[in-house]
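Reopening this ticket.

The earlier resolution said the output was attached, but the attachment link was broken on my side. Pasting everything inline this time so it's all in one place.
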Amino acid sequence: MFNIKSKIQHNYSKVYRIFIVAITIAIMMLISPKTPRFQYEYEQGFPWMYQPLYAPFSFAINKTTDQIVKEKTEIISNSYLYFDVNSNLADSVAKEFEIKAQSLLLADSSISVKAKKQFLANGIKILNRLYANGIISNEDSLANKPPSFIIKTIQNHEESQVEIGRFLSLNQAFDSTKSWSQIYPDKNLLAIAILENIKPNITYNPTLTAEIIDQKMNVLSPVYGLVNTGEKIVDKGDIITTDIYQKLKSLEEKSVKKSGTDDSHWFIWGGTFIYVGFALMMLVLVTKIFSPSSYSDTNKFTLILILFLLCYAMANIPRLYPEIEMYALPFALFAVILQSFFRSALASIVFLLMIFSAGLVSSNGIEFLWIEIPSGLLAILLLNNLRKRSQLLGVITVVFISSSLLFFASNIIKEGHLNNIDFSYFGWFAVSALLTVLAVPLVFIVERIFGLISEMALLELSDTNNSLLRELAQVAPGTFQHSMQVSNLAEDCAIEIGGDALLIRTGALYHDIGKLMNPTFFIENQQGNHNPHNDLSEVESAEIIIQHVLDGIELAKKHNLPEKIIDFIRTHHGTTTTRFFLYHAQQKDPNVDPKLFQYPGPLPFSKETAILMLCDGVEAASRSLPEYSADSINTLIEGIFTTILSSKQLEYSPITFQEISVLKKLLKKKIMNIYHVRVAYPGS
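Inline output:
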C-alpha cells in the first residue's frame, strides 16, 4: 500500500493527466448522441465518394421540405372558401325594419295612415329585392377577387358552388338601397330606415374552411416514389442530384429507424467511445510531440482538454435545441483562445482535431468542416505575432468573409445557380463572427484561473508607457536603455531559432527592474567620476549587485506581473558570479568564499530564458570594450558563450548546440551593426 502511494506521489503529473483525460472521455460520452447514424457522409452537388450503393431493402422516397410546402400552398390556394346562407335572415331584417320605420313615422304627424302603410310596403319590397340576390359579408379573403371567383355555400345542409358576382356586397347593397328608394316618396327617410337594418345573409365560415383544408393536408402523401431492394441508388463518382439526395436521405432515415433497437445502443456507445478515445489520444500525442512544455505543464494540458470538451459540447447544442443554427456558434473563438496561449503549430493542429470531433455530431459534416476549418486557421495565422489589439477586429472580419464565401461556394456547387441560396445564413455567420469578441474576456478569465499569460497580456506589458517601465526610464535611464537593447537582441534571436518572440521581448524589458532600488550602484546609471562601490568592500558591493535580482522579483510581484515574466528576472544571471568583485576580492584574499559573490539562481529552464541570459551578458559586456572591431567583438562573444556553457548555466534549458551556434553568429552580426563595425575584407 505504501509503495502504491509513493509511486502516485512521485508520478503525480502522469496520474493527473490520465485522470483528466478519463474525465474528459466520460463527459464527452455522456453528451454524445445516443441514436445511430448513417454510415455515409454525402452532400447534394458533390460526387459520391464510395462504392456503388444498392438498396438493402425497399423504401419510399420522401418528398423534400420544399415539395411539401409547395403542395400545401397549392392545397390552400385551390381550396374553396365556405360560406353559410342564412335563409331566415330576410324575415328578421324585415321585422326590424318595420319597428324602425314606425318609430320614424310616429315622429311625423303630417303623414297619413295610408301613406304610412305604403311606406312600409315600399321598404319591404326593397328588402326582398336585396335578399333575393343575397348579401355577402366583406372578407379579406375575397379582396381583389373577380366576380367569377367561385365559393361554396351551405344552405340547409346542401353544398353549392356559386360565383361571388351573383351576390351583393354590403357596399353594393347600400348603393342599391339608395338608388331604389329614389322612386318612392320620403326617399331619404326610407333609405335611412332600410340602411340601418341591412345585414349580410351569406357569411364566411372559417372553421369549416380550415377543416376541409386540414382534411386535404392529412391525406397529403409525404412520399412520391419507391426504391426496390437491390435497385442501384448511386454509382461511385456520380454527382448527387436532388433526386439522388432524396433517395439517400430516405434510406438514411429508414436505416436509422430500423437500427434504433435497444441492442443498438451498446454498439453506438462502443463506437462513440472508440472515436472519442482515439481523438483524445491524438490530442495527447500532438501536445506531447509539438509542445513538450505544454504537455508537462498541468495547467496548459488541462486548458487544452477543457477547450476540446467545450468545443464538442457546443457542437451538440443544435442537436438538443434545433432552433439554434450550427453556423451561429463561434467555433473560431477556440482558435483565438488557443493562439493566445500556445504556438501556432500546436494551436492549428488542436483546432483541427476539435473541428473534426465536432463534425461527428454535425448534421452537415462535410460542409461544416470546409467552412469552420479554414476560418479558424485564418484566425490563428492572423493572430500569429500579435502586436496590436486591432488585429482581433481583423480576425472577426476575416472569419465572417471566409465563412460566407465558403458557404456561398458550397451552395452554388450544389445548386448550379443562385436561386435557392438561403441568405439568412449570412446573418448567422455575422453572429458567429461577432461572438468571437468573447475571446477577450475569456482569455482574461483563463489567465486568472490557470495562471497563464496570453499574447494580448504580453502586448500590454511590453508597452513602454507601462508605469513600471516608465519609472525605470526616469530613475535608471541607463538600465532602461540596456533593457531595450537586450529586448531587441533577444527578440531577433527568438525569431531565428523558433522561440516565443513576444514573451522574451517582454521578459527582457523587465529583467533588470530590481535596479530601481539602487540605480547608482550600476555602472550604466553612473554619471561623473564618483563610483559608490569605492566606499564599500567587494563583498558589500557584490551583495548590492546580487540583490537587484531579489528586489526585481519583489517589485514584479508587487505590480502583479505574471510568473512567466518573473522567471526572466530570477534566471537571467542563473548561478553565475559577480566576476569583477570576486576577482578583486581574491587578489586580497585567495581563500575568500566564491559563494558570497554568486547569484541565487535558479538556472534558465526554457529556450527563452536561456536566450535572455546570453543576450544580457553580450550586451552588457559589449559596452565595456575599449575599441569596437570585428576581432574584439568576436573574442568577447566567444568568451561569454564559453563561460556560460562551461559553468553549465544552460544545463536545464531545452536549447540545442546547433541553436547556440546560430545565436552566436547572429549576436556577432547584431553587435557589429550596433557599433557600426565593418568587416575587414582581404585586400582592403
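Reporter confirms the inline version is readable. The CA atoms of residues 460 and 466 lie 8 Å apart. The chain has a mean pLDDT of 85.
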